[in-house]
Specification:
With about 475 residues, the chain is of the alpha+beta class. The chain has 2 domains: about 325 residues, Outer membrane efflux proteins (OEP) (Up-down Bundle); about 70 residues, Outer membrane efflux proteins (OEP) (Single Sheet). Helix content is about 65%, strand content about 10%. It contains 12 helices and 6 strands. The strands form 2 sheets. A 4-stranded antiparallel beta sheet has the order 2-3-5-6, with no helix packed on it. The longest helix is centred in the middle third of the chain and has 67 residues.
Amino acid sequence: MSSHPIQLRVWGLHPRCFRCVLWLWLVGCSSSVTIENLTAQERAVVPAVNPIRAPHVDLPLPDPRIRETTPHSLGLAELEEMAIAANPAVVRASALVEAARGNLLQVGLYPNPTVGYEGQQIGSGGLAEQHGVVFSQEIVRGGKLRLNRAVAQQEMMRTEQDLAVVKRRVLTDVRIAFYQVLLAQRQIDATENLVLISWQGAKAVDALVKAKEATRADVLQAQLEVENAQLVARNARNRHDAAWRSLSAIVGQPELPPQALDGDAHASPQQIEFRDALTQLRSQSPELATAMSEISRARAVLDRAQVEPIPNVIVQGLVNAVDNGVSGKPDAGITVTVPLPVFNRNQGAILKARHEVVAAERAVQQIELGLQSRLAPVFERYANARYHVQRYREAILPAAQESLDLTRKLYEGGEATFLSLLTSQRTFSQTNLNYLESLRELRIAEAEIDGFLLRDSLDVVPAK
């Protein structure tokens, strides 16, 4: 009965410190345990990750399995270039610009003359037959061709503004997806560390049960910790997969393999004020620019409709090269016709064009108010996320780290239960995950505000 304590003292131990030694051996204060310390069976359950080493400013590096399969990391600028070049929404909007350019060329062309053959008195046995060439030309009056070009010019400018809107949507989508992937990778690292810590805790509980230092309830609690951690890790990987699929679709390369991304998701939050953001929206929004160009187009259409009643002149000429009539000599004729605007003075089209101008002007006001309405909830998300991120960095994460450190010391001194230690570890890991979620919301809101609230490029069909 006395040899056991003597043997422990020879090794510098005491039964009272058994839990402390066991914990240090298993987790090494969460700084020296790696996957190589686990058995083959444990490796099959626990993913290969780096352990959490410090608070939020020192989160684990990206998954090494991704870095090993990619020659370089993709940066945000590179992804934006890929998207502008290959995103089908940009390609379609660019094609519509070129189509409008072709229309501008076409509507300014003068009508072609007509030429043909005319025969009279055919069947008279050559006694009175006339054979000649007839031609006609429509003379456009009222500056209609110039006004046609003015309308087409405004339509082309509108399609160019549509293209600018689409590009801004694409860039916003790329930025959002970029940070979605980047932070999803960080969440994978954090959740896999949580799985590792939970597995180590389960091993510790098993050893304590054998030493009669823990109960069956402790074992069940440890097993639940492992199961819950694995569920969270699986969700994190699914989120990463979904984020990458979305990013690859936005850049126009749906088969792009997952790669490491080069970016700093933990950069300081932008300092944005609501009035400043609203002022920038009203002065630089591509949507407003498109609406303004629509006003110019509607006014040009009205100008064109008002000159439509001015009749074009049709001049028709005839040259009879063969005339078997009285004189038998060639002769000619000319006809000039002008439609009389008696019934149709284009009054319906003019009325329509006038109301389209009014509608276009009201559309600008509607968009201005809509921008403010749409900015309000986005700014709310930004303000909440910015405050959360700041509080996590300044107070919550340091407090969670300090709480974990103190609980470890108390546990090592036999003054805290293993359940308390597990709870503290879970709180620390969950706090880091919550911080990453707040950071994700912050980056998305910042991207939307910087992108003039334009996103979802693959869901919006540009106007024709």
